Structure formats: structure tokens, C-alpha cells
Amino acid sequence: MDIIWLTLAGFILLAYTLEAITGFGSIVIALSLGALLLPIDQLLPVLVPLNICMTGYLVWRHRQMIDRPLLLSMILPGMVVGTLIGYALLPWLNAALAKRLFGALVLWFAARELWRLRHAAVQPVRPLWLSRLLSLCAGISHGLFASGGPLLVLALAGTQLDKARLRATLVTVWFSLNSLLTVAFLLDGRLLPALPQVLSYAPLLLIGVWLGERLHRRFNEQHFRIAIYLLLLVTGGLLLVAGH
Q1: What is the pTM of this model?
Q2: How many CB atoms are located within 10 Å of the residue 174 CB?
């Protein structure tokens, strides 16, 4: 079991470095890789509190870049409602079904993003009602797997946000929703047993933020994303197989 938690530490460092670069992806990467080793419901009470520590720092540091009208009018209302729905549905899913659903989500997202990057596809501007519906679905995914990023990025397709404003707005969403989930984990009794792992992994956040802030300015973000999406593509397929 020690080697499993040590391997998870490597996944967490990779995942939180990516979130510091792009504004999303920490939990979807750490959870998709970690789910190959441990049950999803055992991972979430560890990964979610870690996420609010890092996103809280990034929200404060980049608060001037947050698109508040977009956040308050379009993103958060649907995401909050969806997160509550997803959290309520989670006890009704068995572990194998949850792993297959999450694997399918990861596989779809990675394949879609690779196709878009390969074909240099321009993101279409979506009607507001569709963006709101996708935000609700992203919230449900977040309540189930703390991984609403893929669907929320789809909902925000076509918005005129540069990468700095998009990152600042996204990390504000994750800080808000993961704070809500952490309170839920505290109330349902799952947070306290996970605290030793949370505290032992906390120093990795400092390294991840330090690396991510520098790579955000210097690294070719597209090359980095291609590598991550290829990793997620393989991982999603493995989760689908492992769920059977």
C-alpha cells in the first residue's frame, strides 16, 4: 500500500503543476491515474482538499484577472446546482460503474481536445442556453468525480478570454466548488480519516505551483497539453477496461 500512495504522490505533482499552468486538470489527471490504483471514493477526500489549498492561493494571486460577470452570471449558478445533484447521485453508483463513467468522460475529453488541436479547430460561439446547460452538466460531473473541468471548458468554448483570464476564472470555480465538497466530506465522515494523506501531500502543492507559474510563462502550452491529453487518452481506456 505504501508504494501505491507514493505513486499517487507523483500523479499529484504532475496534476497540480498542470493546473497551475492552465487553470484546470489537477483532479481529472490525479483521479484518472489514481483510479488505476485506488477506488474513486477513497481518492476524492484526499484530492479535493488539496485542490482548495492550491486554487485558493492562485485565486488570491490572480484575483485582478477573474472575469466576475461571467463567473457569477453564467458559470457558478449551474455549477453549484449540478455539483449538489452529482454529490447526491454518487452513493447510488457502484465502484465499477463509477470507474467506467469516469473513464468514458476522460476518454471523450482527451480525444476531443487532441482532434481540436490537430485540426486547429476554431471554437464556435455557443448560445447562452447551451452554455448554461453544459455548465449544469459540468457541475453534475464535478459532484460525482470532482472533475467538471472537461465539460466546463466545453461550455466556455468561443468566449473571448485570453489564457490568463481563463485560468484565473477557472481556478475561482474550482476553489468555490471544492470548498463546498470538502464541507460535504466533513459532514459525511470521509474527510477526517483522509487528513493524514492530505497533510503528507500538501508540500507537493508548493512544488507544483512553483513549477506551474514558471512553465505558464515559458513553456509551449500546446505541446504540454498534447502530452497530457495523450496520457489521459490511454488512462481513460484503461479505466474503461478496469471497470469491467
Answers
A1: 0.81
A2: 30
